[in-house]
Amino acid sequence: MPTAATDTGVGSTVALTTATFTASIVNTSEIREVVERLDTTHLGLASTANATKMIGDNPELQDVTIDFHFDSQEAVPRVGANATDTLTITLPSADTNNTTPFSIILSGFVAEAVVAPALSRNTVNAGQLVFTPNGSTVTITAET
């Protein structure tokens, strides 16, 4: 069994295909998949029995929030400008012997975007966008 490879994420890349957006990424939220949990508990259970649950039908990918350094020479993706886009996040290889880095590809759309940063002294101009996966493309490639 291989040893677990961990990394800090420094050197990761984030790109939107249709919007051609590749800003200097500060951080992203984790990419979380959830499924509904249905309560199947009923009044016929003994008062000392645990509540019962079952899994729902369709898993759902949660929104991905991306914080970036605002670059006035690069257009921020506009909400609703592209009905569908592709978000690709690629991590640096944790093992120098590997040739394929970990990546995740999601189809979806930009649901929120900071199109101009808040301005203040002694602060790096920052922006943020929220990408909502639509569920039609979810490709996760492990590092090899």
Sequence-ordered SSE layout with sheet pairings:
Layout: E1 13-16, E2 24-28, E3 33-34, E4 37-39, E5 53-55, E6 60-61, E7 64-69, E8 85-90, E9 103-113, E10 126-141
Any key phrases for this structure?
144 residues, mainly beta, Pnp Oxidase, Chain A, 6-stranded antiparallel sheet, two-stranded antiparallel ribbon, 10 strands, 40% strand, extended
| CATH level-1 class | Mainly Beta
> How far is the N terminus from the C terminus?
14 Å
List low-confidence stretches.
Answer: none
What's the shape? Answer: extended
Describe the strand arrangement of the main beta sheet, using strand numbers: 1-8-9-10-7-2
- Kindly identify the CATH topology: Pnp Oxidase, Chain A
Number of strands: 10
Assess the beta-strand content as a share of residues.
35-45%
Content-based structural category? mainly beta
Order of helices and strands: EEEEEEEEEE
Question: How would you sum up this structure, described in words?
Answer:
The chain contains no helices and 10 strands. By secondary structure, the protein is an all-beta fold. It has a single domain (13-34, 61-141), classed as Pnp Oxidase, Chain A (Roll). The protein has strands at residues 13-16, 24-28, 33-34, 37-39, 53-55, 60-61, 64-69, 85-90, 103-113, 126-141. The two termini are 14 Å apart. The mean pLDDT is 86.
